[in-house]
From TrEMBL, chains A, B:
InterPro entries: Homeodomain-like_sf, HTH-type_TetR-like_transc_reg, HTH_TetR. The lineage of its organism: Bacteria, Pseudomonadati, Pseudomonadota, Alphaproteobacteria, Hyphomicrobiales. This is TetR family transcriptional regulator. Residues 34-53 bind DNA. Keywords: DNA-binding, Transcription, Transcription regulation. It holds the Pfam family TetR_N.
Length: 209, 209
DNA sequence: TTTAAATATATACTCAGTACATGTTTTGCT
DNA sequence: AGCAAAACATGTACTGAGTATATATTTAAA
């Protein structure tokens, strides 16, 4: 909690808007909530909403930065004897073991995903985030192996992120079918292991495997 | 060319609008052309534009269906002794050998890609198309191997499409650096081979590899 | 306490996309 | 040929996100 009055007020207002928006989004679906309604619900001016959230989607995705930083840090700060692909795999296992909020396969996260799937705008934003993360991952891969960013780095990043998102989707699917978080976790990790195994094979002979 | 007068007129009008739009898009960038300008350039009413192209992006991406059909057909109509992943790999080689228009790495396609990269809207549409194709590919994979669509099919599709788009991007990068179409082709196929090798490893023991 | 920077908010705009109504052309039927 | 229905072109009026800009108010800092 920052001591600065201005900053505290600013964050409080941001949070108030985000809360109002989230409430409305889950109740009625992202596409059926207007910025005007959010402003009214949060009792602020319309322009204030844009002031804090340049895009409507920004009110929905709030923890993206955390997930991104986790991934990039895991690649950058891995032990030298661990390959990047293996570091990625271990990160997935660690996140599940630690019950990190954004890979917790619970009723809450299923609702989250359902809201995304129901909205083209949210799906588009999710894809954009993933693409940008793929690029950043390629850069991090090259950087931590002392290479210039090359085709190998980009293919590795692309395959890893494809693996991640497939595993994530699969875990949520398992959750919806079985209602069992443990089973969802297991299917997530199984696909992570399967995908990374493939990536290692593709990257054999490079510093990434 | 359909003999039907109505259909011919309709297609002609559609083409006229598409041509006008394309001209403007390449000249000024997708985001800096309004629907009104396109309508005026094609000398039709604004609503007519929407009549033929529900979304602005539809005027830009015109050959997507062709690319999609090629991929799905290659998977569906492969010889029984060829695995789906191998069929994918062979398709890529065949398209290059046949100089298929949408995988021709020429100055024209570089300009095309530059226009896409300059526009968030076009990038978003490209991602959407790719995601949808991934889903259709998973379904086709399951179908042609007589499986129910499962996690293996989805992981395979996801890794294959990731491979494709990375290879495509890499080829264009090579083209821009070297100006050499042959070099671009070579880098495309090298990445396709590398990626599919990884997918085969990941899918060993399944009917997809 | 005065000044400067941040912040909240109003007004007025742009542009894609939708809803709906109305002509106009083509077709298929008699 | 002549007519009714379908398909198509197009106008008007709207919604809703996002931008530009101006202004007022609050907080920080001197």
């Amino acid at each position: 909690m920052p001591s600065d009055l201005r900053t505290r007020k600013r964050l409080a207002m941001r949070q108030a808007i985000s809360n109002a928006a989230t409430r409305l989004f889950f109740a009625r679906g992202f596409d059926h909530v207007t910025i005007d309604e959010i402003a009214k619900e949060a009792d602020v001016g319309r322009m204030t909403v844009f002031n804090h959230f340049p895009r409507k989607e920004d009110m929905f995705f709030d923890r993206d930065d955390e997930a991104r930083d986790n991934l990039l840090n895991a690649l950058r700060q891995r032990a030298p004897e661990i390959s990047p692909v293996e570091a990625f795999r271990l990160l997935a296992h660690r996140l599940i073991a630690d019950k990190a909020p954004y890979v917790e396969f619970s009723a809450r996260s299923a609702e989250f995903m359902n809201t995304i799937v129901a909205s083209e705008a949210l799906k588009a934003r999710a894809r954009q985030t993933r693409d940008e993360l793929t690029g950043q991952t390629a850069a991090a891969l090259a950087e931590t192996t002392g290479q210039a960013e090359d085709a190998n780095a980009r293919l590795t990043a692309s395959l890893l992120l494809a693996t991640w998102s497939t595993a994530y989707a699969e875990a949520l699917r398992t959750l919806q079918h079985t209602g069992d978080t443990k089973a969802a976790n297991a299917s997530f990790l199984a696909l992570i292991d399967q995908g990374t195994l493939g990536v290692k094979a593709a990257m054999a002979g490079t510093p990434y495997a």
